[in-house]
Amino acid sequence: MIYNKRALARNKEDKDYTKSEKQILISLINDYSLFGATDNEIIQMLSKKIGKNVSETLFYRLKKEAKKKRQDSEQWLDHYTKYQFIEFYRQRTEKLEYVQRNLLKVLALETEEEEED
């Protein structure tokens, strides 16, 4: 039964903020954390920014969500970077093969011309 009371308390707190407000809070938490603000400083700045009191419970829940989104973003970036890295070198290899083929053709033509002379 205690678990249900906690869930009800969380749901009530969730209704105090719209989805867009929560997204803004998450974005601000990431920004403030990036600049090295402490948790208490962030809570104060968030409360002042949106004009509502931000509880520690909400803050830590949003901070956890922010960390998860940051990890998801980092995984996407890692994947994208690896793909682009591979694609860059694949294109580079194709260009080098093209240059090599052309150089071999030119070399063959020049050696034929030298033999004819």
Task: Give a verbal description of the structure.
By secondary structure, the chain is mainly α. Helices cover 88% and strands 0% of the residues. It has helices spanning 2-15, 19-34, 39-50, 56-116. Mean pLDDT is 82; it is low at 3-11.
For the residues shown, what is the average pLDDT?
Answer: 82
Strand content: under 5%
Oligomer: single chain
Give helix % range: over 70%
Write the element-wise H/E pattern from the N-terminal end onward: HHHH
Shape designation: rod-shaped
Strand segment tally: 0
Please give the alpha-carbon distance between the first and last residues: 100 Å
What is the structural class? mainly alpha
Would you identify the regions where 5 or more consecutive residues have pLDDT less than 50? 3-11
How many helices?
4
Biggest sheet details: none
Radius of gyration: 29 Å
Please tag this protein with its features:
117 residues, mainly alpha, rod-shaped, disordered N terminus
Q: Brief overview, please?
A:
With 117 residues, the chain is mainly α. It is 88% helix and 0% strand.
Question: What is the secondary structure topology, with strand pairs?
Answer:
Elements: H1 2-15, H2 19-34, H3 39-50, H4 56-116
Helix pairs in contact: 2-3, 2-4
